[in-house]
Amino acid sequence: MRHLFSTRLRIILVLAVLITAGLSVLSGLTSQSIPDLVIQGFLAPFRAAGSALTDAAEKYFSYMFRYEALAAENEVLTARIAEMEDVARQADAVSRENTRLRQALNFLSTHEDYVAVDAYIISWSSTDWSNTLTLNRGTNAGVAENMCVITANGEVVGLVTEVGPNYSIVKTVLDSTLEISTNIATSGYNGMVKGGYISGNETLLRMDYLPSSSIIRNKDQVVTSGSTVYPRGLIVGSVVDAGFEETGVAKYALLEAAADIRSLEQVFIITEYTTDITE
Predict the structure, then answer these.
(1) Which of left, alpha, beta for 143 (phi over 0: left; psi -120 to 50: alpha)?
(2) Residues 131, 125: contact at Cβ < 8 Å?
(3) 218 phi and psi, to 5 degrees?
(4) CA 98/CA 103 separation, integer angstroms
(5) 187 or 42, which is more confident?
(6) What is the distance between the alpha carbons of residues 172 and 253, in angstroms, rounded to a whole number?
(7) Which residues does 253 contact at the CB level (< 8 Å), separation at least 6?
(8) pLDDT (0 to 100) of residue 166
(9) Phi, psi of 203 (to 5 degrees)
(10) Burial 45-75 (b: 16+ CB within 10 A, else e)
(11) How far apart are CA 27 and CA 37, in angstroms?
C-alpha cells in the first residue's frame, strides 16, 4: 500500500514538473506569466462557450430584425396588391359598363322613339313562383309602374311593378305570374309567354296558345307583339322545344330567355315610346 502511494506521488510530481516546464516555455514564448497562462487555460472553455452564445444571440437578433423588416415589407406589398386588385376590378366594371352603354346607344339609335333610363340591380329575389329584381332608380329618375325593362341589346328583362323615390322592383320574365303577348318572328304565330318553372329547367319560359297546326322550329326567335306596356319587336327568347297541351287543342313552346337574368348588372327602363296599339 505504501509502495502504491509512493508510485502515485511520483507520477503526480512528474506531471507537475512537466506542466510547470511547459508553462515556463509557453511563458517565454508569449511573454506572459505562468499565472496568466493558468488563468487563461482555466477560462478558455468559458470564453469559447461565451463566444458561441454571443454568436447565437447575434444571429437570433439579426433574424428577428430581418423577420420584422420582411413582415413590414410583406404588409406593404399585400396592401399594394389589394389596391391593384381593387383598381383592376373597378377597371373591369367600367369596361363592362362602357360596353353596355355602347350597345344600348346602338340599340336606341335604331329606336328613336324610345326614351330610356339606365339602372343597376341592387338585389335579387327568387321563390318557386316569383322572380324579381330591385333597381337603384325610382320616381326621382322618372320611373313608374308598368314600364318595360330591357338589356342593352333590347332583350326583355321584365316589368316594373313597384316604385319608390330611389328604387323600383321589377317582375322578371322568369316570374310565372308575368304574361307577355308575343309572336314567333319567323312565322308570326301569336302566343302568351310566362315563366314556366319547369322542374330542372327553372330558367325556361313557356309560350302557350299556339295553333295546333303551327310549325315550330328550334331556335325560332320569339318577340313582343306590341302593347302599351311592351314595345313591339323586343326579344323575349328562342325556342328550344315544343309539344301539345294536355287537351290536344293547342301547342306550347319552351323558350330559353334572351336575357340572362342571373348575370345582369345593369338594365335599361323604357320610360317613353311611341305605339299605336291599345290594350
Answers:
(1) beta
(2) yes
(3) -60, 145
(4) 9
(5) 187
(6) 19
(7) 184, 191, 206, 207, 210, 216, 220, 222, 239, 241, 242
(8) 95
(9) -90, 0
(10) eeeeeeeeeeeeeeeeeeeeeeeeeeeeeee
(11) 7
Residue 22 reports pLDDT greater than 70? no
Domain ranges of the chain: 116-272
The grid coordinates listed for 193 are: 309567354
- Three cell numbers at 215? 310549325
User: 168, 120 in Cβ contact below 8 A?
Assistant: no
Of 56, 24, 58, the closest CA to residue 38 belongs to 24
Q: What are phi and psi of 162, to 5 degrees?
A: -150, 140
Q: Indicate the pTM of the whole model.
A: 0.65
**Per-residue model confidence (pLDDT) at position 18:** 53
Q: Which of 255, 84, 229 is nearest to 148 (CA)?
A: 229
Please tell me the class of the 116-272 domain: mainly beta
- Say how far apart CA 100 and CA 114 lie, in whole Å: 17
Amino acid, single-letter form, for residue 189: Y
Separation CA 75–CA 251 (nearest Å): 65
Least confident among 22-26, 59-63, 244-248, 264-268:
22-26
Whole-Å CA distances, 178 to 192, 263, 267: 10, 20, 18
Residue that has been written with the C-alpha cell 496568466 in this structure: 36
- The band of 236, judged by pLDDT with boundaries at 50, 70 and 90, is very high
Q: What one-character DSSP code corresponds to residue 248? A: S
* Strand intervals (E) in the chain: 115-126, 131-135, 148-150, 156-163, 168-172, 180-184, 190-195, 204-211, 221-224, 235-244, 250-257, 266-272
Phi-psi region for residue 149, left (φ > 0), alpha (ψ -120 to 50) or beta?
A: beta
